[in-house]
């Protein structure tokens, strides 16, 4: 494909005149650089009719750009009865994904600057997406359509191992105990679920003040980013009966030791490190019966296969309209949450083994 003009079909929803103009500009920009775009705005009325035109476009194209917006998402997912063209195109896309065994090499989600990850249809959320308003993202998309990858340089000679002073203990600062003590995470958690497939659920950690929670999450974001791509932060929810404790469950914020080991092993003096020290924080959430909010969160997480965690506070003054508040600007996106039962935890060499100690079992949270 390096020396031929790729054929690209553009699937989008007619949200507004402004949005249609953006899509037309995208197609024009790609065509000006040799990408043969198929777009309904280039057609008056195809003789075979629009359904067959769309079918032929999806079938014969090398790639399909899916321009994701809230309207597009709602029509694809069936919550908006309008837009028959989008429903037809999405059915063709779903069928081709199914036929390929979910091995997607053809369908590429794109957004404009005002777009969001949540607007990408669920079957395409695992694919690389591009903000085509961003020059760097546009260039990456262009070279992907051309089938050209960055050339690897020749493999060089390994460096000689330097002589380093021996260090036996490596202490991680991801979960800093002093910072968590200062933040005062003492009020448990809450759960937020969007209405009508509006996006992944959110776990809200309640701190004594919003400012304390914001400061702590800003530090976490500095270390792992707004998206925990390495899954370094370990979030675990442990249910089940616990000796000496009232009914409820644990929420554990810790560290993925396997990911941390990879970080340690990448250091120049990794051979001299014998021990790794990590920290974790946990809270017990008391419930009279089964927690319906936790049950709903687990259902939403299973559906989206991802969630957010965010700082927040409880409103216990009796005057506020909402029981709690959250800072959505400091959310961290996570794809992996651990759900465990207390009876399955081992007393040794287990990430949650501390929960098996008598000190925790008899602690009043």
Give an overview of the whole structure.
The chain is α/β, with parallel strands linked by helices and 365 residues long. It folds into two domains: 140 residues, 3-Layer(aba) Sandwich (Rossmann fold); 193 residues, no CATH class. The strands form four sheets. The chain has a five-stranded parallel beta sheet with strand order 2-1-3-4-5, sandwiched between helices. Helix 1 links the parallel strand 1 and strand 2. Helix 2 runs parallel beside helix 4 and helix 6 runs antiparallel to helix 7. The radius of gyration is 25 Å and the shape is globular. The mean pLDDT is 88.
Overall shape: it is globular
Structurally, the number of domains stands at 2
Provide the structure class. alpha/beta
The share of residues in helices is 25-40%
One letter per element, helices H and strands E, the order comes to: EHEHEHHEEHEHEEHEEHEEHEEEEH
Low-confidence residue ranges: none
Largest sheet: 5 strands, parallel
For the record, give the distance between the C-alpha atoms at the N and C termini, rounded to a whole number: 62 Å
Cα-atom Rg, whole angstroms? 25 Å
Q: What quaternary form is this? A: single chain
How many extended strands? Answer: 16
Tell me, rounded to a whole number, the average pLDDT: 88
**Cross-sheet strand order for the largest sheet:** 2-1-3-4-5
Specify the number of helices.
Answer: 10
- Percentage beta strand: 15-25%
